Amino acid sequence: MTLIEQPVEERVAAAPRSEPTVWGLSLAQLHDRFWASRGVQVVRMGEPSTIVDDAELFMLTDPRMLLTLNIRRVVEKMIWLKPDVLIVRLANTREEQYRETAMCAPDGTFIRYQRRYGGWDARLARVCFTRDKDLARDWQNASEIRSIWQEFRKKIRQQDRSTVRIRGRVYDRTVAAETAQFVRDLVADWKRPDTTISGIGQVAPGVWAWEGTEGSSKDVATQVDRDIEFTGPLWIGAGRKVGKEQGRGGIFGPAALWDAAGSRPVNSPINTSALMLLVLPWSVPMPVVV
Asked: Could you tell me the residue range of the domain that residue 258 belongs to?
């Protein structure tokens, strides 16, 4: 089985220069690589990308959403019920705290502050899984959440739709505090990012750093003093120099050090050969993510 390696000319464009990256990948791209390592292609409404042939599942999400969940229950439902669409209602396990967000008009004019006291946005409460590429394209081409749900209800017979409630972690990618927490959780949970990210290597147990690939300029390679004490998982971005001065007293994870300014590598291709060894076929139990 192979999975999700797009032709070079069709790869997702690199993140905007203003957005921080790790190994040339934005947070959304890291999220998508994580799910690709589990046989799932993330398809976002309104965000064009190639619908690939070899994905075991398509995950249809709100553009704002980043998430992790237990894929085992999803796979079990897909195998035994064989629905065209599996609707997952997410029970968010993340601890919610008070936050205050400035609401602005499209021209940047301040409107008001929005205060949240726990809880989370209901629009991020659902995600769909399907094996149908046409449904994935319909979702991708939709312009509004409510209308596509209504279209799915009309298009897909009730007996061909199933719903399940699953615990998971949900993050709003438009909120800085939530994306920061997502990075920490992803670094802690994803033990083998090299399955779908090329150009990285393990410089210490649980510590992954950019090593560069053929054609990369030497100045983007990470320089790590091997005598530094690392505690916990850590991702070190391209162009970073981690020496005794920066690591005085050790470096503690889970954490990610962004790519250094001006040293962002080109989006690395998915490591398909390694992926084939780790993505399990549906006939055996799938690994637990959360």
From this structure: 12-27+190-284
User: CB–CB of 93/167 below 8 Å?
Assistant: yes
Residues 217, 156 within the same domain = no
Cα dihedral 65→67→71→73 (10° resolution) = -80
Region for 250 from its dihedrals, namely left if φ exceeds 0, alpha if ψ lies in -120 to 50, beta otherwise: left
Query: How many residues does the structure list for the chain?
Result: 290
Whether 6 is covered by a domain: the verdict is: no
Q: Which residues contact 12 (CB under 8 A, 6 or more apart)?
A: 6, 29, 32, 49, 267
Domain contains 83: yes
Rounded Cα distance between 219 and 9, Å, is 25
The CA angle 176-186-228, to the nearest 5 degrees, is 100
Report the predicted TM-score, pTM, of the whole model to 2 decimal places. Answer: 0.77
Instruction: Answer whether residue 42 is part of any domain.
Output: yes
Mind listing the pLDDT tens digit for each residue in 268-287? Answer: 666 554 444 444 444 434 44
Spatial contact of 52 and 159, defined as CB atoms under 8 Å apart: no
Q: 3-state DSSP call for residue 98?
A: strand
Last residue of some domain: 189, 220, 246?
189
Together in a domain, 207 and 248: yes
pLDDT digits (tens, 9 = 90+) for 197-255: 988 999 888 999 888 654 455 557 667 766 677 777 999 988 887 766 554 556 777 88
Q: Are residues 266 and 194 in the same domain?
A: yes
Same domain, 88 and 151: yes
The pair of three-digit structure tokens given for residue 277, joined into one six-digit string:
């060894």
DSSP-derived pairing of the beta strands 65-69 and 161-172: antiparallel
Bond before 254 cis per omega within 30 degrees? yes
Placement of tokens 């209308």 in the chain: 147
- Note whether residue 265 is domain-resident: yes
* 44 and 179 co-located in one domain: yes
